[in-house]
Model the fold of this input.
Amino acid sequence: MSRRPIRRDRPPKAAHDDLRLLLAEVSQFLDQVRAALAEPESEAGDDLRYKAAYIATLSLVIRNQNFSPRENLSEAARRQSHGLAFISLLLHRLTLLAHNVFRQALHLSRADFLNDYALDEFFDEIDLGLALIRPALEQRREKQVIRLCQVEGRLDAHYADRFRRLSEELGAGRGRSGDLVTTLMIVHYLERIGDMILEIGEELIYIVFGERLKFTQYQALMDGLKTAGLDPGRKATAFQSIWSGRSGCRVGVVGTGGNGQVVFKCGPSGKMERERDNLKTWAALKPGLTPTVRAFVPAREGRAAALILEYVSGRSLRDLFMDSGLAAEAEPALAGALEHMAGLWRATRQETPIRAAFARQAEKRLGPARALFPDLLNFEGSWGEVEIMSLRELLREAAALEQNLAAPFTVRIHGDFNLSNIMREEGGGFRFLDLYRSRTSDYAQDLSVMILSLLRLPKSGTAARERLAGAARRVWDFALAFAAENQDQTLEARLSFGLARSYLSSARFEARRPSAARFIGYGRRLLEALLAHGRAGRPWPEFRLDHRILYI
Done:
């Protein structure tokens, strides 16, 4: 009879023993570097070189043991094994930086030159950081991990002070310029050691907390949970990433024990403040349609801002369209979401014309695609008697043409109205997510984003693609009906400009050339159709789109 393998909750004891030994060797190495700075001599350099080589070997042994553990480990133990391997690598890198400190000191004209710059303050902080690693790992205490991470900030402050002093002395011509530059290099390496200590602390956050978070994100999460009145204790808190957004935001679902779940969103201060304000605006316009803001953590001391939001259960419209078994539910759900959005547009309509400037938006969003596929974007030439303009030229002419095309009124738009940002709850209700781009603008932007989010779904097969194209066409028909209801005669032209912007913007997220070429090709075709209409001097209410563009 076969025996089930035993799952272990911790990596082998030998791994901890080896890390303790490595920490002791690294601490001793730092002591030797500190002592050698008083009398920098090549003989001391030999000892340091031998010890650095031993530390490198020991670090490699730990990495080999832990990156591919042989035993059947639990997920927590496997996470700790990988963490130990990475910490050993960071300690090796820290040693190399400390060795560079000594090697720079050999270039000084006199040994006592460093006395005026109080380098002991750096070494005392580094010693503290190294001393905190072992208890933080073995006892898994949050306070020790936080103290460890905070070492980097104090080393940064010491470096900033010495950098200012050395810069002033170099500018004033005080002292030997070579010694001043060498000292600047020494304090730079000491500051870089602080970066290694911070990375070790963040690896400990991963081991203890179970999720890779930057220290600033972890602080914002704990502060946000406290502000929301939730218990931020590690044992009662579980974190699961949803995505790291293309906007630079970190998003995750946080379980808080008996208090249920919340959503944590951390990112640039301006974006978090804008989303908070937009959520408050939407709550006043359509109560219950958007998540409740449980807490807001403002940015401070280099820390990103964060939101703690109500967790919304249910399934996104993207999930409904991707699951073949839910095909019958997907399109009615889409129709319901469009009606909710149209209700908000009606409620917020203002008789102020607006130009959305879709061509200019597309130009700003092409950066990554230009780097990956410059030939697709910069190609120009001729095909027989037909002149082919570069995409830059097309967008420049389109931007000028859009100056004569305005929406007759403004509404409050979602700003990123795609399938992933619409949740259908179990009871059939709808919730809208990710509102930091919301503003008053042209509703054609919301509609163009929704159409392309349908066409971009990774579904293969003729029947599936035709179903998505049909859904996109129904969004288009909905748009035309809303335009007719509101006497908007130029929507079809503006929606085509918006679709061109969405197609071209999508190319920046594609690493595969065929996909990028397809999106850029559709964007070009739309722009060329619009430009042909404009060059002919025909009025915009007469523009009609060839709907074959919806079959991607």
The domain at 13-209 is CATH 1.20.58.220 (Methane Monooxygenase Hydroxylase; Chain G, domain 1). Residues 121 and 158 are 8 Å apart (CA to CA). The mean pLDDT is 88. The first helix runs from residue 13 to 38.
